[in-house]
Structures are given as C-alpha cells and as structure tokens.
Amino acid sequence: VELLAVITLSLMLFMGLPLVQAQFQERELEQTARQFVRHAQFARQYALYSGEYTAIRPRLGETWDLGWQTEVLKASSTIGVVNSVLSQYELPTDVQIDAHRFRDPHSNTIQIIFNPAGAAKTQYGGFVANRLIISHAKASHIKRHIILAASGRWRICDPNTPASKKDTTC
C-alpha cells in the first residue's frame, strides 16, 4: 500500500511539473512586460515634467537581451550628447525580446524617445514605436506583445488567448 501511494504521488508530480513550469514562465513574461510598461510610462512622465527628451533603450548594445534603461537625453555643445541614466532593468535569464521593433528609421537606433510633450516621436517628428514581442527561451510558444498606440496608450497582449486570435491588433 505504501509503495502504491509513493508511485501514485510520483506520477502526479511527474505529470503536473510541466504545468507548473509553464505557469512560472508565463508569470515571468507578464512581470517583464509590466516592468517595461512602467519604465516607459516613467520615461514619458519625466519628459513631460522636465521638458527634456527622455529615451528608453537597450542597456548595452543593439539588442534588448540584457534589459533596458531609461535615459535623459541632454545636448552638450562641446561633447555631443551626454545622457544621464534614470533607471535600469535587467532581463531574467530565459526571457528574450524581439530586437527588430522600436527602431528609429532616421538614426537606425533601437529606442523610444519621448519629446517634452510626452509623445514618442523621432527627432524629425515621425511616430516610431509599435510593438515589442517578449518570449521565453524554454517555451517559445509563450509570448507577450507590448503595444504602443499613436495615442501613447500601452497595452500588453497575449497572442495565445482565444480572444486575441480573433483580434487582429494583437
């Protein structure tokens, strides 16, 4: 009887473990998406409050793989652009962000710049941002889309939900 109970318990744990892991991975993506939206809203609010251009861009290099940072873009007449970092976020190990999004067409830099009016615009006045796709390395079918509308509204979308499959904006 004890052996049967141990075997039954082992089978239940073995069958339930993938479900628990998938739930953990979904929460990790959701947390990352919410953090990105918080940092972007902070960058926009800072631009509105201070009257300075503020950017959210990859921490190091050309990809979002290491996370992002929020910077105040200040022009200096002798040096060029001197940036001060307001906040940073380091991505969890297995979380990946699609690096082809939020690219400024004029400078070819991956970033979102908020002007002093709080709009996500390029230096030439065009709208830059559209969506960022966050996925998990261990479960590539789990994704979150972070969408920035021209109005400045942020939205997190799960493309795997039945409602999102019918909605073409996700």
What does this molecule look like?
The structure is a single chain. By secondary structure, the protein is α+β, with helices and mostly antiparallel strands. Helix content is 32%, strand content 30%. It has two helices and eight strands; from the N terminus they run H-E-E-E-E-E-E-E-E-H. It has helices spanning 2-50, 162-166; strands at 53-58, 68-76, 80-89, 95-97, 112-114, 131-136, 139-148, 154-157. It has a four-stranded antiparallel sheet, covered by helices on one side. The chain has a four-stranded antiparallel sheet with strand order 4-6-7-8, covered by helices on one side. Strand 6 and strand 7 (139-148) form a beta hairpin. The N and C termini lie far apart (52 Å). 24% of the residues are buried. The model has no long low-confidence stretch (mean pLDDT 82).
Which properties best describe this structure?
alpha+beta; elongated; 170 residues; 30% strand; four-stranded antiparallel beta sheet
- Gyration radius (Cα, Å) is 20 Å
Mean pLDDT across the residues is 82
Strand content: 25-35%
Count, helices: 2
Give the strand order of the largest sheet, numbering strands 1, 2, ... along the chain. 3-2-1-5
* Strand tally: 8
